[in-house]
């Protein structure tokens, strides 16, 4: 499987993980290790930035696992930029998953504020991975603003509904010059495999793994699905046809 390059990092795994909703920090740690993910996102609001021994972060200290702080909870560009600066100071990383969702019911991203924050954060030297709706026009605007990748949603956060935005994701993948990471809504390993088969560069999964009966086992299932989907994409899928086409020649061997 080809490696994935984003900004100054190279990833062998194309499965990224969220760290919320796990029953215990130990469950989260086991799932991260089982997934073999190299990039895990952490909500700043869940981290105690006043100490060097935060419980959550202690369970993520493994070789090859990079932290991607996110601005979940930010309601506008001003709050997101402030949170990003705090994260850079506390966690010593300029990587950022930019999340701005003012509506607490559906947690849908604010396109205008996200673009505004991306423009400002790019000037401040951040590597920005914005969480957005599956909007091809916005993706090109973010690309021009200096984003390192785009993270369009498959469905609203935490719903496990899968790739409800399939048609728009296809357009984004076709047009994008930066990596496309499908984020939010992926509810089953088959959703992840489908996203990879269609050409996504990676997927980010949280809820589907965290709320599973066995999170570590589900994380491994997602790892296998992502690898299978990517292998299928690289092998190039056969064309979809409208009419039947025999897989063997229709010869006249039955004719006497």
Automatic annotation (TrEMBL):
Keyword match Transferase: yes
Entries under CDD domains matching the protein: ThiG
Keywords noted in UniProt: Cytoplasm, Schiff base, Thiamine biosynthesis, Transferase
Pfam families: ThiG
Compartment(s) of residence: Cytoplasm
Source organism superkingdom: Bacteria
Family recorded in the similarity comment: Belongs to the ThiG family.
Protein name: Thiazole synthase
């Amino acid at each position: 499987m080809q490696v994935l390059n984003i900004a100054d990092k190279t990833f062998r795994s194309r499965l990224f993980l969220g760290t919320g909703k796990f029953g215990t920090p130990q469950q989260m740690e086991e799932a991260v290790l089982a997934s073999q993910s190299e990039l895990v996102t952490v909500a700043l609001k869940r981290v105690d930035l006043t100490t060097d021994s935060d419980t959550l972060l202690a369970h993520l200290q493994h070789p090859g696992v990079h932290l991607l702080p996110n601005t979940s909870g930010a309601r506008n560009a001003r709050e997101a930029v402030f949170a990003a600066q705090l994260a850079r100071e506390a966690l010593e990383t300029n990587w950022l998953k930019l999340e701005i969702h003012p509506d607490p019911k559906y947690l849908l991203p604010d396109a205008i504020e996200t673009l505004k924050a991306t423009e400002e954060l790019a000037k401040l030297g951040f590597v920005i991975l914005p969480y957005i709706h599956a909007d091809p026009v916005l993706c090109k605007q973010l690309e021009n603003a200096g984003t390192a990748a785009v993270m369009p949603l498959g469905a609203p956060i935490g719903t496990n509904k899968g790739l409800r935005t399939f048609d728009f994701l296809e357009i984004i993948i076709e047009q994008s010059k930066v990596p496309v990471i499908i984020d939010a809504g992926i509810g089953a390993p088959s959703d992840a495999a489908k996203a990879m088969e269609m050409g996504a560069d990676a997927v980010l999964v949280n809820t589907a793994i965290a709320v599973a009966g066995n999170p570590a086992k589900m994380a491994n299932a997602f790892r296998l699905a992502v690898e299978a989907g990517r292998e299928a994409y690289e092998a190039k899928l056969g064309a979809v046809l409208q009419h039947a086409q025999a897989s063997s020649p229709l010869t006249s061997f039955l004719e006497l």
